């Protein structure tokens, strides 16, 4: 895919959603960190349902630690893998209190040193909480990047590096949100909404889904 086509894709996605953001509900970088840890193999809807009650009871590292393991588990047990996630969150809170003054670090290495935080989660925090032009590649972005030809790659890291390298600087800060929402609601794994896709004419996907619908789709439908 050439540079002109890439630019047009992001221009169209921006026109549909000029100020994209995460669908996770949060008020502080710490709440976002907890929500992203919980979101692994879980839906944002399910995470939000759990964190509304959790954050009402405990919204700082110290308050989470005061809940203890059983108290934390009881508030997130509706989320998949809640046992391991609770243990990681508690260890992360201990590190935040002991090593970072109870603040979420604005540093990739420090973030990735936290239990339950990998490269993707670190990218989300750096981008969404701190406005860094990072691109976190999840399953949706991996699919969209390969299917459209925007940044094909065999691994999330390869796709990430290609996206960062090829995405024009003016779009880089919001690219993560545009692509994840596009993958979640339009360029779906099953039955992609190709006839309604705002970038279908720019996409390299050879097996576009036929449909009688002619109504243009936004890049996300909630």
Task: Outline the fold blueprint.
Layout: H1 3-16, H2 29-38, H3 44-57, H4 61-76, H5 82-99, H6 108-112, H7 119-129, H8 139-148, H9 156-166, H10 169-185
Helix pairs in contact: 1-10, 2-7, 3-4, 4-5, 8-10
Could you name the key traits of this structure?
single chain, 222 residues, mainly alpha, Endonuclease Iii, domain 2, Endonuclease III, domain 1, 2 domains, 10 helices, 57% helix
Describe the structure.
The chain has 222 residues and is an all-alpha fold. It folds into 2 domains: 3-20 and 135-202, Helix-hairpin-Helix base-excision DNA repair enzymes (C-terminal) (Endonuclease Iii, domain 2, Orthogonal Bundle), CATH 1.10.1670.10; 29-129, Hypothetical protein, domain 2 (Endonuclease III, domain 1, Orthogonal Bundle). Helix content is 57%, strand content 0%. It contains 10 helices and no strands. Helix 1 crosses helix 10, helix 2 packs antiparallel against helix 7 (119-129) and helix 4 (61-76) runs antiparallel to helix 5 (82-99). The mean pLDDT is 92.
């Amino acid at each position: 895919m050439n540079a002109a086509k890439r630019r047009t894709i992001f221009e169209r996605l921006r026109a549909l959603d000029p100020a994209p953001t995460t669908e996770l509900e949060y008020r502080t970088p710490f709440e976002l960190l907890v929500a992203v840890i919980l979101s692994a193999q879980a839906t944002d809807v399910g995470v939000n349902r759990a964190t509304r009650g959790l954050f009402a009871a405990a919204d700082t590292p110290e308050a989470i630690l005061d809940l203890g393991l059983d108290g934390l588990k009881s508030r997130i047990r509706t989320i998949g893998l809640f046992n391991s996630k609770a243990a990681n969150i508690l260890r992360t809170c201990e590190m935040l209190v002991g090593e970072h003054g109870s603040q979420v670090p604005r540093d990739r290495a420090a973030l990735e040193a936290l239990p339950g935080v990998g490269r993707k989660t670190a990218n989300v925090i750096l981008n969404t909480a701190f406005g860094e032009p990072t691109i976190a590649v999840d399953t949706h972005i991996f699919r969209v990047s390969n299917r459209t030809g925007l940044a094909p790659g065999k691994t999330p890291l390869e796709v990430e590096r290609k996206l960062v390298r090829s995405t024009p600087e003016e779009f880089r800060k919001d690219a993560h949100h545009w692509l994840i929402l596009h993958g979640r609601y339009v360029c779906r794994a099953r039955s992609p909404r190709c006839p309604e896709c705002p970038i279908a004419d720019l996409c390299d996907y050879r097996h576009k889904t036929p449909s009688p619908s002619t109504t243009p789709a936004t890049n996300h439908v909630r």
